[in-house]
């Protein structure tokens, strides 16, 4: 197994516990669905769909939805959520860099905090646009590098082993200049806006514990550091607490995100 394949295998395992945060990310899903212009009758693909919060929000609006994710535990949860909600939706395990769909199969392609973890942005966006119909909408939510979650990722990166060559940092997808470059001439009417997700928590320390236990990359990093370098793990915990404190007010942590939308030429 080469470095890139191992990276993906590690991601598949790391994200297995993310379902516990679905109610949080579910509060952002309606904003992406509205921003993407999803309505009844359109065919939608949700890439890195997780537990289906965006796909099922779109299905409730009357769209025909398909969701794909690398982690089987999240796909199983998405299917359970669809059953619980009484909604029709198709979910399957798969890789954002190799989508199992024909060209021009969807009216709308979306991703909420998901495709940004694909290791090769050029491959991921190439696949997103390949399966999108000409004139169709691509829309996604990502984390700006200069704000809370982007700074969190930068902090994690200082403590984690370096990724394989060619793997891009996820918060780059939160920089409009980089997005413009990556989408290039393949799209028109590129539009950006921002919105806010509030993470309810009793304290910055509670926030750090929840993220360390349920957020895939952080969980794996803390497991490794706790086993190999407890002092370094303690330093990281203190840094996370300080970062969260800067965005903590009224028993919640403010997490601003970027919404991007464009039409395929």
List the main descriptive attributes of the protein structure presented here.
265 residues, alpha/beta, Rossmann fold, seven-stranded mixed β-sheet, 11 helices, 7 strands, 44% helix
Task: Summarize the structure in short.
With 265 residues, the protein is an alpha/beta fold. It has helices spanning 3-14, 22-26, 29-35, 53-60, 72-85, 121-130, 148-159, 176-183, 204-214, 216-228, 230-246, and strands at residues 43-47, 64-69, 90-93, 106-112, 132-142, 187-200, 252-264.
Folded structure, characterized:
By secondary structure, the chain is α/β, with parallel strands linked by helices. The chain has one domain: 3-Layer(aba) Sandwich (Rossmann fold), CATH 3.40.50. 44% of the residues lie in helices and 23% in strands. The protein is built from 11 helices and 7 strands. It has a 7-stranded mixed sheet with strand order 3-2-1-4-5-7-6. Helix 6 links the parallel strand 4 (106-112) and strand 5. Helix 3 (29-35) packs across helix 4 (53-60) and helix 7 (148-159) packs antiparallel against helix 11. The chain is globular.
Topology overview:
Elements: H1 3-14, H2 22-26, H3 29-35, E1 43-47, H4 53-60, E2 64-69, H5 72-85, E3 90-93, E4 106-112, H6 121-130, E5 132-142, H7 148-159, H8 176-183, E6 187-200, H9 204-214, H10 216-228, H11 230-246, E7 252-264
Parallel strand pairs: 1-2, 1-4, 2-3, 4-5
Antiparallel strand pairs: 5-7, 6-7
């Amino acid at each position: 197994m080469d470095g890139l394949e191992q990276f993906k295998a590690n991601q598949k395992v790391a994200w297995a516990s993310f379902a516990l945060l679905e109610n949080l990310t579910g509060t952002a899903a309606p904003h992406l669905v509205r921003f993407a212009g999803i309505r009844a009758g359109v065919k939608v693909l949700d890439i890195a769909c997780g537990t289906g919060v965006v796909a099922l929000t779109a299905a409730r609006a009357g769209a025909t939805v398909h969701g794909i994710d690398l982690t089987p535990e999240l796909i199983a949860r998405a299917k359970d959520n669809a059953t619980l909600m009484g909604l029709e939706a198709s979910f399957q395990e798969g890789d954002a860099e190799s989508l199992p769909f024909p060209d021009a199969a969807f009216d709308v392609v979306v991703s909420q905090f998901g495709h940004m973890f694909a290791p090769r942005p050029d491959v991921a966006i190439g696949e997103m646009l390949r399966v999108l119909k000409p004139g169709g909408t691509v829309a996604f939510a990502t984390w700006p590098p200069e704000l809370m979650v982007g700074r969190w990722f930068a902090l994690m990166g200082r403590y984690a082993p370096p990724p394989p060559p060619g793997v891009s940092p996820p918060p780059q997808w939160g920089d409009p200049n980089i997005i413009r470059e990556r989408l290039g001439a393949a799209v028109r009417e590129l539009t950006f806006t921002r919105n806010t997700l509030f993470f309810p928590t009793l304290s910055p320390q509670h926030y750090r514990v929840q993220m360390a236990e349920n957020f895939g990359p952080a969980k794996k990093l803390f497991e490794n550091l706790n086993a190999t370098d407890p002092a370094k793990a303690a330093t990281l915990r203190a840094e996370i607490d300080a970062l969260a404190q800067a965005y903590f007010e009224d028993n919640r942590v403010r997490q601003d995100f970027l919404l991007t939308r464009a039409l395929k030429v």
